[in-house]
Amino acid sequence: MFLFLAIVLVTTACQSNNEKNDTVRLAEVTRSIFYAPMYVAMEEGFFEEEGIDIDLITTWGGDKTMTTLLSDGSDIALVGAETSIYVNAQQPNDSIINFAMLTQTDGTFLMARNEASFDWDDLRGSTFLGQRKGGMPQMVGEYVLKQHDIDPHIDLDLIQNIDFANIANAYASGTGEYVQLFEPQATMFEEEGLGHIVASFGEESGTIPYTVFMAKESYLEKHNDLIERFTRAIYKSQQWIYEEDPNTIAKSLSPFFEDTSTDIIASAAERYRNQQSYATDPLFTKEAWDNLQDIMEEAGELPKRLDYDRYVDNTWANQVVNE
């Protein structure tokens, strides 16, 4: 009897050890506290609970991220939804489908070198260190500036020839009077006395599908169960980040930002949470899709309007939210 039980236990253990998690190759457009719920899902074991191992790569820029996805260098991409519009407007054989929203506002902050009280008119005639043409930070930035009657191409000395990954370094080196920066760079620069956060583009621009999980249509068709489990892990983390205190969040994020103090991580995460930049669920609404295309059209970057029902699939998001 004891021998039989021992054999059963050993056999069960071997079966458990042989059961491997599904690996998802995930490409993120940059490394930012703006994407905190994704890192939380990794660090707090939410992906592990769903039988998923994440192979995370940082591709530093929307164009590079989409190239990685299209060339099968990744299975899923976390990037601005505008990249899916650029690709799908060319009618590829394998469309790019947006299936879960991670952030729902712009994630950049306007930094000024001087601490004097800020007015948007102060930007006129200034040197503005902008973002990549056609990318979400630049398009949202232009949209917000125009709401304040500032034409970025006429009223500013706009610099756009610096690679995305080097913008923060360029500002730190003295280029530009104003710059758009993500966290944690914005808070770090304040701490270092390099500038001051004077406005939030996220608060100014409204709900936008700023960063979204997307994949090729063929991948989604072949991995229905996996995508549901992936989306469930993200939803768990979205709920978690609105329930926990900033210090707990910082502890979870710190392995992804080893050169950043936990105080800065906590401050940056709280700043994003307070302005509800983190989506509270993975549902990608038509309102957000339409707002995105309006902003792209305003910037002169919209190739053509694309149908929401064709390129956004909330199947898995609806499933996990309604469980």
UniProtKB/TrEMBL annotation:
Q: Does the keyword Signal apply?
A: yes
State the Gene3D superfamilies in the record.
Periplasmic binding protein-like II
Major place of residence:
periplasm
Q: Name one Pfam family in it.
A: NMT1
Protein location: Periplasm
Q: Which UniProt keywords apply?
A: Signal
Classify the source by domain of life: Bacteria
Q: Which residues form the SsuA/THI5-like domain?
A: 36-244
Q: Which family does it belong to?
A: Belongs to the bacterial solute-binding protein SsuA/TauA family.
What is the name of this protein?
ABC transporter substrate-binding protein
Tell me which species this is from.
Aliibacillus thermotolerans
UniProt lineage:
Bacteria, Bacillati, Bacillota, Bacilli, Bacillales
